[in-house]
């Protein structure tokens, strides 16, 4: 009897645990002429595949090197936020068969083009899960860490009309490297390609089709990373500003007429950080966070998992707050 009561109490405590993720996780794979990649999808408890219910937004979340979807979700606590705010998360997964460190191959030209390579596999998988789980294709957002952040830049440049907003955390700008040999140099010292050139190539990849509104982006980076050093943050920022200038009317003419503000924050018990904000017609469309002391880790993440640092501001909240300005919670 005592054993029964103990077991029952343990189960009850488990079920009432505030950290328990409700919702469910679905696994699947997407196949095409470009190959195959597996993925996981987190669906919050408010999700319904019935057409009588409103379709929920979806965030594409791209893990970094030496991570997988499970460790990335746990470190960022993204599924907990998804349950709380009511959005789905689509986690494409790299295979060690294609990269022994589980990095996305952002540096290969075939993966830097629309409808080819890993870009097509990720976007094809997105189309599949959006249809399968009745997600809102008009409320699609994109984020990534490290090599996943570099892929965010690729997808943002080549598929800008597919996303309401994007976020990179320790990523590189589009076309930062063009092969595995130059990638190593880029990771440590930044790209030798000018953001102006990268943005022109990005507009070419987008299909030279103007977009009515800018593509909003939040960029997060640490000042102390041994890899993906701080220079990448300003390169991503510059490339996306120029890319957005192309997007509005197809011409590089500074027509966005944007304005820049700078703020410094020194919160108690957290790393200090700077925020550069670029606004168009009074609305922020690019924010760049530089976090002092942060190495190559997700800021504010759960350090039970590698590449997370709890002493920085919560990057997941920063990103989701930014996404909310562009329809995540509407």
What's the helix and strand layout?
Blueprint: H1 2-16, E1 24-32, E2 35-43, E3 58-62, H2 69-76, H3 78-85, E4 88-93, H4 117-132, E5 140-145, H5 147-158, E6 165-169, H6 180-189, H7 195-205, E7 217-222, H8 231-249, E8 259-265, E9 273-280, E10 283-291, E11 298-299, E12 308-309, H9 315-324
Helix pairs in contact: 7-8
Subcellular location: Secreted
Keywords: Carbohydrate metabolism, Hydrolase, Polysaccharide degradation, Secreted, Signal, Xylan degradation
Protein name: Esterase
Task: Kindly describe this structure.
Helix 7 (195-205) crosses helix 8 (231-249). The strands form 2 sheets. The protein has a 10-stranded mixed sheet, sandwiched between helices. Strands 11-12 form a two-stranded parallel ribbon. A hairpin with a 7-residue loop joins strand 8 and strand 9. Residues 1-20 have low confidence and may be disordered. It is of the alpha/beta class and 330 residues long. The protein has one domain: Rossmann fold, CATH 3.40.50.1820. The protein is 33% helix and 22% strand.
Write a concise keyword list for the protein shown above.
330 residues, disordered N terminus, alpha/beta, single chain, ten-stranded mixed beta sheet, two-stranded parallel ribbon, FaeB/C/D, 12 strands, Rossmann fold
Question: From N to C, what is the helix and strand string?
Answer: HEEEHHEHEHEHHEHEEEEEH
DSSP strand content:
15-25%
Structural class by SSE content: alpha/beta
Radius of gyration (CA) equals 20 Å
Please give the CATH class.
Answer: Alpha Beta
Tell me the total number of β-strands: 12
The biggest sheet, with number of strands, parallel, antiparallel or mixed sense and barrel status, is:
10 strands, mixed
As laid out across the biggest beta sheet, the strand order is: 1-2-4-3-5-6-7-10-9-8
The residue-averaged pLDDT reads 92
The CATH architecture can be given as 3-Layer(aba) Sandwich
Low-pLDDT sequence parts: 1-20
Shape: globular
Protein name: Esterase
Subcellular location: Secreted
Pfam family, one: Esterase_PHB
Organism: Halobacteriovorax marinus
């Amino acid at each position: 009897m005592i054993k029964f009561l103990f077991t029952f109490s343990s189960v009850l405590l488990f079920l009432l645990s505030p950290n328990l993720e409700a919702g469910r996780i679905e696994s699947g794979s997407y196949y095409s002429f470009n190959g195959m990649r597996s993925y996981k999808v987190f669906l919050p408890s408010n999700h319904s595949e019935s057409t009588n219910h409103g379709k929920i937004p979806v965030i594409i979340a791209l893990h970094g090197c030496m991570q997988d979807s499970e460790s990335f979700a746990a470190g960022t606590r993204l599924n907990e936020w998804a349950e709380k705010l009511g959005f789905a998360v689509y986690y494409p997964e790299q295979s060690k068969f294609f990269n022994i460190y589980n990095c996305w191959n952002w540096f290969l030209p075939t993966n830097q083009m629309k409808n080819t390579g890993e870009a097509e596999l990720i976007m094809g998988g997105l189309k599949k899960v959006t249809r399968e789980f009745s997600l809102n294709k008009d409320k699609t957002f994109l984020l990534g860490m490290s090599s996943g952040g570099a892929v965010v830049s690729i997808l943002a440049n080549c598929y800008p009309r597919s996303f309401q907003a994007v976020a990179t955390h320790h990523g590189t700008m589009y076309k930062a490297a063009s092969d595995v040999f130059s990638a190593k140099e880029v990771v440590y010292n930044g790209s030798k390609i000018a953001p102006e050139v990268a943005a022109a190539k990005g507009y070419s990849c987008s299909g030279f089709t103007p977009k009515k509104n800018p593509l909003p982006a939040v960029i997060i980076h640490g000042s102390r990373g041994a890899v993906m050093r701080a220079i990448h943050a300003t390169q991503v920022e510059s490339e996306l500003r120029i890319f957005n200038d192309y997007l509005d009317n197809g011409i590089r003419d500074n027509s966005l007429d944007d304005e820049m503000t700078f703020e410094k924050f020194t919160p108690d018990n957290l790393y200090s950080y700077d925020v550069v904000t670029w606004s168009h017609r009074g609305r922020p469309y690019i924010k760049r966070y530089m976090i002092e002391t942060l190495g190559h880790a997700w800021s504010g993440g759960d350090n039970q998992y590698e590449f997370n640092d709890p002493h920085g501001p919560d990057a997941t909240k920063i990103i989701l707050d930014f996404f909310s300005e562009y329809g995540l919670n509407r």
